[in-house]
From TrEMBL:
GO CC terms, sorted: plasma membrane
PANTHER family listed in its UniProt record: C2 DOMAIN-CONTAINING PROTEIN (PTHR10857:SF106), COPINE (PTHR10857)
InterPro entries: Copine, Copine_C, vWFA_dom_sf
GO terms, molecular function: calcium-dependent phospholipid binding
Protein name per the record: Copine C-terminal domain-containing protein
Cross-referenced Pfam families: Copine
GO biological process: cellular response to calcium ion
Domain annotation Copine C-terminal: ranges: 18-233
Length: 235
């Protein structure tokens, strides 16, 4: 699953200094690189190659600001076909929404949680990864914590790529880099860490790959979930 930040802090997509600028030469922007590089790896673990894809922080045509809208423009279904489907839906959305704000994560995490919960209720043996690509500091930190604590019992991991030059200290809080589990408003503690955050700027030297850094904790998160549920490999 993919969720893309369309808040106004990204800059006017029609100008070269925007993080959402589509270069006529074909050079990928940071959002496109994250979609392509992460998707190229994770697609091999997905049988039907159909991916739920959302945008947040924008105003769709003739509508209010939405913090979770279907990237393909459909009001009925959110899935796109393959990595190219995500790329095409992303590019199309840039010309069909007005960038707005603020930057809220809670809505897309809750939406992803619904997908994971629905799958769990049908007995499907699936594990989900939600890739969030964002340029800004979130303004719903506690709501996001609440959503993550609730999601920690579901077959779900959250992969966050931070693009641009913002201060991403709050992302490190969500990532529980100091080993402290997230706590919800009601005092519930996350059953496990499900977040991995990587700032894109730290990877531009080329010494560390985005995919390697972003997916570093995913195997452990997956195994922790399986062990808690006592789900064993098929023989």
């Amino acid at each position: 699953m993919v969720a893309i930040d369309f808040t106004a802090s990204n800059g006017n997509p029609r100008l070269p200094d925007s993080l959402h600028y589509i270069d006529p030469s074909g050079r990928l922007n940071a959002y496109q690189k994250a979609i392509y590089e992460v998707g190229e790896v994770l697609q091999f673990y997905d049988a039907d190659k159909r991916y739920p894809a959302w945008g947040f922080g924008a105003r769709p045509i003739d509508g209010p600001v939405s913090h979770c809208f279907n990237l393909n423009g459909s009001s009925n279904y959110c899935e796109v076909q393959g990595i190219q489907g995500i790329m095409m839906a992303y590019t199309s959305a840039l010309f069909n929404v007005s960038l707005a704000g603020p930057t809220l994560f809670g809505h897309v995490i809750n939406r992803a949680s619904i997908v994971a919960c629905d799958s769990l209720s049908t007995g499907a043996k699936k594990y989900f990864a939600l890739l969030i690509i964002t340029d800004g500091v979130i303004t719903d930190l506690q709501e996001t914590k609440d959503a993550l604590v609730k999601a920690s019992d579901l077959p779900l991991s959250i992969l966050i790529v931070g693009v641009g030059g913002a201060d991403f200290k709050e992302m490190e809080i969500l990532d529980a880099v100091k080993g402290e589990r997230l706590e919800s408003t009601t005092g519930c503690i996350a059953s496990r860490d499900i977040v991995q955050f990587v700032p894109f700027r730290d990877l531009q030297s080329g010494e560390i790959s985005m995919v390697g850094a972003l997916l570093a904790e995913l195997p452990t998160q997956f195994l922790t979930y399986m062990r808690r549920r006592d789900i064993k490999p098929s023989t």
